[in-house]
Each structure stands twice: as structure tokens, then as C-alpha cells.
Amino acid sequence: MAAPAPALELDRASRSFERQGGPPVHALREVSVEVPAGGTLAVIGRSGSGKSTLLHLAAAIDRPTSGHVLVDGRDTAALDERARTRLRRDTIGLVFQSFHLLPHLSVLENVVLPARIAGDPDAASRARARELLDRVSLADRADDGVDGLSGGERQRVAIGRALLRRPRLLLADEPTGSLDDENARSVADLLFELTRTEGTTLVLATHDASLAARADAVRRLAGGRLVDP
Ligand SMILES: Nc1ncnc2c1ncn2[C@@H]1O[C@H](COP(=O)(O)OP(=O)(O)OP(=O)(O)O)[C@@H](O)[C@H]1O
Ligand SMILES: [Mg+2]
User: Fold this and answer.
1) What are the chain's domains?
2) pTM metric for this prediction
3) Which pLDDT value is given to residue 3?
């Protein structure tokens, strides 16, 4: 039997940004990396080294200037806009440093939102959302507004939302970057615990060495290139 495709593969992927009146910025330079299905990868590096650029390529939010990015074996550059939207919706979950919750919706409605957008059946989605809220210890806050939540609680809601539709690939950009040490640790515990029990692949970008050390593999970016960690 053929081996399953890696959940994520970058093959000499580069991303440059043109600038008015100046040389282009080479945000990512010929980066090759493979993340097996179910694996965890931490991408570390200083500010401006290209971590978010790499995650945007992995999320099919952006495309490489050259080289290839394959998600679940599919080359994102070969997909049209509709197919890329579908790939993002059905295969990828995203967690950001600043949570990106919708303030006028309840905790439960925030978690259920991706299913509403995808047109999934309502009852099953709400049941799944409640299950995830239970897993992130926020079941009793389901009907509260998100404005009253602490940073750690907001990130736990965001993790539930990202996992709602059982993505194969969870991408997290500085998921603990806005949290104090204690909350950072509990969010990290949840991320690794949930990705393991859900069988999801996790790729995270972080400045936090203790978070990175928990991943199966750690790769360091410097000036858009992979260097020795
Ligand atoms: N849309 C854009 N237009 C121009 N330059 C960009 C754009 N996006 C990123 N860059 C540049 O690409 C480089 C890498 O940026 P990126 O956001 O990937 O870094 P990062 O490692 O995520 O940094 P941080 O740790 O501060 O989040 C930076 O020099 C940045 O200014
Ligand atoms: Mg960044």
C-alpha cells in the first residue's frame, strides 16, 4: 500500500513581496519541509524570519512565488480559488495569537461558526461544539458572550472553533503569544492533547522555546531560510 501523503509538504517554496521603490522582500527562500499526518512541527525564528508567511502558504491563504506547497497531497497552486476555499474550509483549522473571535456572538456560536459557513447540519454541529467546549473546560460558558472571557479562555474557544470540522491540519501562529505563563501552558497542553486525540497534524509558529520543545520536530527560520535549530 502506498504511504499516505504528508499532511503538509513544502518543496523549495519561496515567497517574495514586491515593494514600491525598493528591492523585493524575500520572506521565504526555498524552504522544504514535510510534516507526516498526525505529526507536530514547531517553526521558530526571530521576528520577521518568515514564520507567518510559511503558515499563510500552508493555509492556502497565500501561494508561493516559486516552489510548491502541498496540503494533504494537493498542490495549492494547482487549485482554483473555489477549490482553495474548499481546502481551507474542509482540511485546515487556524488559531491566531489574537484569537479572532466574533465579539457579538456567544461562546457556542463562535465555535459553531465554521459549520454554519460550510452549511453543515445544525444539530450535529452544535453537539460537536458542545463536546469541544467540554474538552476545553468551557462547557459552562457556552451561552456567555466572548467579551467577558480571559485571554486564555478566548484562546481555548478559538481552539475549539478550529477543530470543529475535524481538520487534518491545524495551523497555529503564536497561539500562546498573548498569554501569561500559566495560561500559555494550559493552552499548549490543550493544543497537543487535542491534536493527538483528534488525530490532527499540528504546525505551530512560536517564539516560546518550551512550547516548541513539545513538538515532534522543530525547524528554525532565519531570513526566510531554514537553518539548524
Ligand atoms: N504582505 C507583505 N508585504 C510585504 N512584506 C511582507 C508581507 N508579509 C510579510 N512581509 C515581510 O516578510 C518578512 C517575514 O514576515 P513574517 O510575518 O512571515 O515574519 P514572522 O517570522 O512571522 O515575524 P513575527 O515573529 O514578528 O510574527 C518580513 O520582513 C515582513 O516584513
Ligand atoms: Mg508572525
Assistant:
1) 8-102+165-227 (3.40.50.300)
2) 0.96
3) 77
